[in-house]
Amino acid sequence: MPAVPPAWPGRIDISPPGGWAGMLEGDTITSGPWPHHVIVADAIAREIRARDLVKVRGNGDGDPWRGHRDLVRLKVALVLAILERRVDIRPDDWELAGVVVDTSDAVRKHAQTVIAEAYGRRDIASAVRQADREIVKLGRIEDHVVERLARSITRHVLARPGELTPRAAKKTTAGRDRDHRDGALEYALERGWIEVRTEPGQGEERIRLWPGQIGMPR
């Protein structure tokens, strides 16, 4: 795209249909369906073209919300001009329209921030709920492993009453379950499936495991 735009070909000379001539009467804008020709100050046109050139060449800020910003600003500037019964956009109209559009951008960005924060809080809450579910799941899995090992230890004690020490009973479980051995033994003892008895021995007391008073449920 050339930096200098081609010459303006001029306004197409079209007269409005009969009965609608004279849309502009002095400083008074009359009503009617025929569109008015809006005159944009040269400085404003140069500013818009320069910004469009940067954007077309791929050097813009990439914000999709700013794609039609100058068009919106022109429309606001035209409204300001019409309030003064004009259809020419002057630099002061353009400047004031910039304030309006800047304010609109600020409100939009604030709204986007609020929405993003709300989504962020929702995502965090969802992640916390998911983590809680995982914790509960892991806890149930661990409880299941401990109960399974406790039943295994109890079966060994029932098969060999008074022979196994607590240490020996724990070693009857698989090596992969070593982290749960202590918990499994306590589980079986607390439920009365097995019990610890101390017996006199040679030089020191013997600690052995015996079937408990409460049978292990199936």
Give the gist of this structure.
This protein is 52% helix and 9% strand. By secondary structure, the chain is mostly helical.
| Low-pLDDT segments, ≥5 res | 14-32
- This entry's quaternary arrangement is single chain
Estimated structural class: mainly alpha
Helix content: 40-55%
Rg computed from alpha carbons, rounded to a whole number of angstroms: 43 Å
Which sequence of strands runs across the widest sheet? 1-2
Beta-strand percentage range: 5-15%
Morphology call: rod-shaped
Report the count of strand segments. 6
Span between N and C termini?
84 Å
Report the biggest beta sheet as strand number plus sense, adding barrel if it closes: 2 strands, antiparallel
Overall average pLDDT: 80
Keyword list:
218 residues; mainly alpha; two-stranded antiparallel sheet; two-stranded parallel ribbon; 5 helices; 9% strand; rod-shaped
List the helices and strands and how they pair.
Blueprint: E1 24-25, E2 28-29, E3 39-40, H1 42-56, H2 69-83, E4 88-89, H3 91-159, H4 166-170, H5 181-190, E5 194-199, E6 206-211
